Amino acid sequence: MTYYVYILASRPNGTLYIGMTNDLVRRVYEHKEELADGFTKRYGVKTLVYFEIHETAEQAIRREKTLKRWLRDWKIALIENDNPYWDDLYQQL
Question: DSSP label at 22?
Fold first, then answer.
């Protein structure tokens, strides 16, 4: 099975959310449609700006926890390295 670590943003350089899932399309759809109460709904965090693919849940969980501990500047640099214009990657899935 494939697992994903992803970053959502409210806007370029805005509020960031880091998550992990085994179904990226479904999970991002849930965020976009505000189907669950929580952080992303409260702060309007709906744009998929970065994701990584992992082979195991353990790898993905470890990476998610690592990214959550990173400084904000590091997270922004990670996003902008692959997605300099903060495009919504959901359309490409």
Answer: S
In the chain, domain spans: 3-92
List all residues 6 or more positions away from 85 whose beta carbon is below 8 Å from its beta carbon. Answer: 12
Nearest by Cα to 49 from 4, 7, 2: 7
Q: Which pLDDT tens digit goes with each residue over 11-50?
A: 999 999 999 999 999 999 999 999 988 999 999 999 999 9
- Kind of pairing between the strands at 47-54 and 16-21: unpaired
- Strand extents, DSSP E, the chain: 3-9, 16-21, 47-54
**63 touches 1 (CB < 8 A):** no
Q: Is 38 left (phi over 0), alpha (psi -120 to 50) or beta?
A: left
CATH architecture of 3-92: 3-Layer(aba) Sandwich (3.40)
